[in-house]
């Protein structure tokens, strides 16, 4: 009897399935738009003197908080990076400071511009120091997920204010404002071509930040009781100029932001020619006549009392904390008949700062 062995071969038929499809996602701004920056009420800038390196004076001044800049994410080329380009008209690039710096009406006070979505500070892109598109924020892939941090989010625009080494005072200006009305730059989210563009403009009135006025906290004369004592003087010595001039000084301390000081002189009694302070005892019995006190500054300029056009100006103080003003007082004949007697002249210095 022959045995036959039958082997059954079972073939499992497995379906060949295609790999699951993967769709990329991309975030973009939902629409293009042009926006003018505008800040609200701002407290004065904390400037106290010169700096050798850039100093941040104000961070994140809100300049746009509307509904016009909104990002959304959908199926598309994979990407969600933030790109920007700048208008490089008369700008600066400070070392160690983000982005490009735009000038204000006060030399040495500059600002930069950046934007971020409301929901996260991870994305914070500054207008760059170049006019071609530049990626200013590289974002991780999860940013473009549905309902992620960029999907359906509004964006805000901010301004930072810096002081740099070029600052040499306010030059009589009380508020910091943009130097130009101009386009600042553009932003684009996602792909760098063909996507909506956000354009940011600024006007001279977009911000007006108070800046501390130059001042000094005290002014002290170096003579006792602010009195210059000439002692006893021979009335006949006045005609020959033989009475020595008396030097004196006024020291200003606690000065802040002072680049120049202007001094004016006033008195209740002035000589007829207007060059001197006259005797305050005029009309009293036996008062001295025919003389007055003339005040000169360090440059030998006469301070004519009560003359709005007569002043002593000291420039180039480089915002020193202490300033010394040097003057001389001289008894002089006034051209009228001289008579001996008691004499006293009183004047008031009025100082203004820039």
UniProtKB/TrEMBL annotation:
Superkingdom of this protein's organism: Bacteria
Alphabetical UniProt keywords: Fimbrium, Signal
Cellular localization per UniProt: Fimbrium
Main location: other
BP terms from Gene Ontology: cell adhesion involved in single-species biofilm formation
Gene3D superfamilies in the record: Fimbrial-type adhesion domain
SUPFAM superfamilies from the UniProt entry: Bacterial adhesins
GO cellular component: pilus
Range of residues in the leader sequence: 1-23
Family assignment from sequence similarity: Belongs to the fimbrial protein family.
Protein name: Fimbrial-type adhesion domain-containing protein
Lineage: Bacteria, Pseudomonadati, Pseudomonadota, Gammaproteobacteria, Enterobacterales
